[in-house]
Each structure stands twice: as structure tokens, then as C-alpha cells.
Amino acid sequence: MTDQPTRTGAQGIDLIKHFEGLRLQRYLDAVGKPTIGYGHLILPHEHFDRPLSEAEAQALLRRDLRGAELQLCKLVRVPITQQQFDALMSFVFNLGAGRLRSSTLLRYLNAGSPAHAADQFLVWNKAGGKPLAGLTRRRQAERKLFLS
């Protein structure tokens, strides 16, 4: 596919930054995993013994995004817009490519039904089986960007 987006655009990065928030020191995320920066999950071999600078947090985000972008490009089999790519990147950054791979959202998208795919963002607003306000807002924002 020519002219297919392969990198997260400014709207996608802004959306991810908004919902992930910036924490320059290590913290435990909602499920107890060590995290830093804009939602970077700290890997066992990584050590963050001092606070990050904002520039370091942005560089870490770009590195994390690149891996997710490569995974997303393998999953999407139809032409999409930059806004659709960015919305999907926010989803993948938050939930992982595996969740997208097995989702009805991706099935609808690859079947050529982007409107039905957009509605599927709203299904992914639960943690522990219960809807969370923050996830609901994030999924609504992703859907809105996807449809723009």
C-alpha cells in the first residue's frame, strides 16, 4: 500500500501523552507494573535510578511507539488515514498489539467497514470487568480521532 501511514502523527502523540500523563520518576501503574515517563513499562534489564528529564521521557516514548508502529503496520491490511493510524496507535500503546490482533475492531477494519470498527473502540473501556471513566474517555477520544 502506497502512502500508508507508518509513524504516529502529532495528533496521536498528543492523545497518548494526554491519557498516559508524564511521570518523571518510577511508579507502579494501575496493575502494579513499574512504569516511568509516558507510560513506559520498565523492563527487567532497565534501571531508572534517577528522575527522567522531559526530553528523555519523549525519547523513550518515541522508542516505545516505534515498536508498536511496526506491529500495527503488520496487522492493518487496508488503506487507512493518518488519523485512523493515530487512533489505533493510542489503542495499541495502551492495550498492546495482541489485543488489537484478536479484536473485532481489527476484523471490521480489515473487512473494509471502518464505521463498525470505530464503534468497537468503545467496547475496550473495562479493567477487571468494570468500566473505568478514564478508559471510557480515552476510547471516546480514539473513536473521535479515528472518524475525523
Query: Which whole number gives the mean pLDDT?
Result: 94
Strand content: 5-15%
Biggest sheet layout: 3 strands, antiparallel
Low-confidence stretches: none
Look at the helices and sheets and give the structural class.
Answer: mainly alpha
What value does the Rg take, in angstroms?
15 Å
Q: What portion of residues is helical?
A: 40-55%
H-E string = HEEEHHHHHEEH
Using the coordinates above, name the CATH class.
Mainly Alpha
Principal-axes geometry comes out as: globular
Q: CATH topology, anyone?
A: Lysozyme
List keywords for this structure.
antimicrobial, 7 helices, Lysozyme, about 150 residues, mainly alpha, about 55% helix, globular, EC 3.2.1.17, two-stranded antiparallel sheet, lysozyme activity, glycosidase
Model description:
- The chain has 7 helices and 5 strands; from the N terminus they run αβββαααααββα.
- The protein is mainly alpha-helical.
- It has a single domain (10-147), classed as Orthogonal Bundle (Lysozyme), CATH 1.10.530.
- The strands form 2 sheets. It has a 3-stranded antiparallel sheet with strand order 1-2-3. The chain has a two-stranded antiparallel sheet with strand order 4-5.
- A hairpin with a 2-residue loop joins strand 2 and strand 3.
- The longest helix is centred in the middle third of the chain and has 22 residues, at 54-75.
- The protein is globular and about 45 Å long.
- The mean pLDDT is 94.
- It holds the Pfam family Phage_lysozyme.
- Its EC number is 3.2.1.17.
- GO terms for molecular function: lysozyme activity.
